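[STRUCTURE TOKENS]
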Amino acid sequence: MPTIAAPDRQHVEDFMASVAPSNAIHQTTAFISYLAVRDKGGRPVLVKARMFLASSRDDRVPLQFDCATVIAGRFALAELGITAQKLIDEVLDGQLPTPSQAIMFAPKNDGSYSAYRTPFHEDGLSRERRLELLSITGGPKWDLVKQPTLDWELKAAETPFDGLAELMGTLRLGAVPGDATEFDVVAPTVVEVDLAAIVEGTDARPGVRLYKGLDRAQCALGYRVMLKGLVVDRGRIGGDKMHWIPVDGEDYEIGTGNVQIPMGAVIHCMASFGGVAYHHGWVIDPACLQNPLRAVYEVFDPDMLKLNENCDLPGSRGTNAREFEFAISWILSLMGFRVMVLGSSKNTQEAVDLIATTPEGHVLVVECTAGVIKADKIAQLSSRVQVVRERLDTSGSSFLQVVPMLCTNLRRNATQAGIDAAEKLGILVACREDIDTQLERTLLLPEPEKRFAEAVKAAADAKARHTAALPF
């Protein structure tokens, strides 16, 4: 019988206690994605699985994939007729139940599993959300995932995939686990700030989006009113003081309050449930922008429609790639960086795409790709930033910091393998989620030095995650 050490068991219990306030929605919104391979005896053995306790509608589309070696799928927890706690217990007993068959989850060589709770996952923090994760690891995967054999098998499947990375991205399983098999549980962000809330002059109606079925009285919206970089008011609106409107065809309902603010102020909103903060964001009157750079820019691109269109263009070559480079240069400019666009000129196409500097002279070396992050792009950026570093050192500017940054218009789950490869080299990766977050920040007065310091820390933290020993 597989075992789990007391400290690891405590991580499981702490995680389940943390998500207990949202138990009411798990049975209707939880979905499980998994990928397994057949062993030499033909038995399915789990490589990686994730249970999303509150999945998005895109993640609730059932999927079943089966070829000679690989078995994968996505299904609702409700199909099993058991609770999330019961599913975790069965995983710790050595198997993942699915609607079609049980899949073996092999323990480590000593017959045990490890478990680790991450209360604030980096992927959530980069999007100003609380993302909590429980990771359970089993036995070694080296004898299960044999590459490039599996990639070529998937290309020939009846439902073809380019390789294991694409299949895992489709199932939102992230990258292939490093050394061991994994089962993750992703906690729901049960409440979010309604970023479409209305502000008209001095009348603000900030709001939240709360999963239907949860107790409104446990919901709250904290706020800070900011004018010209200063906090001029702060407060909290309880769920019992909000006006609630269910949204047809959606899983959430919207609760709104009312706050009087000075003309031209913005509101920093913080959504919480059960005393736990889950999301924060900014609400503004689009007619009164604090950032003069953005105010001027929006004269020519109202609501930033053209900028967002440039970020949505498909393809990694030609015109679309150039337009994405321009979009990133505009965002950096709006954040207060001085930006040189090199990659879009015929005379400097072989150079890095963008160079962005702060007023103090610190440097972002930026490459852009309107598509998946490829190995040659990563190697090229790593080489170029080293040359920049050496030139600054020899020119007497060794005190200046340099951060390599790679921007893609894809979301993280669509190019996870490339992200991991880049972060291992200390390259900061900005995906579409991160671009949206920084766009939101351009509502405020530019603070390029602060943004650069955040980039330095984010790049270092990401590299440390890949190089440090596993915390279990």
About this structure: The two ends are 20 Å apart (CA to CA). The longest strand covers residues 44-52.
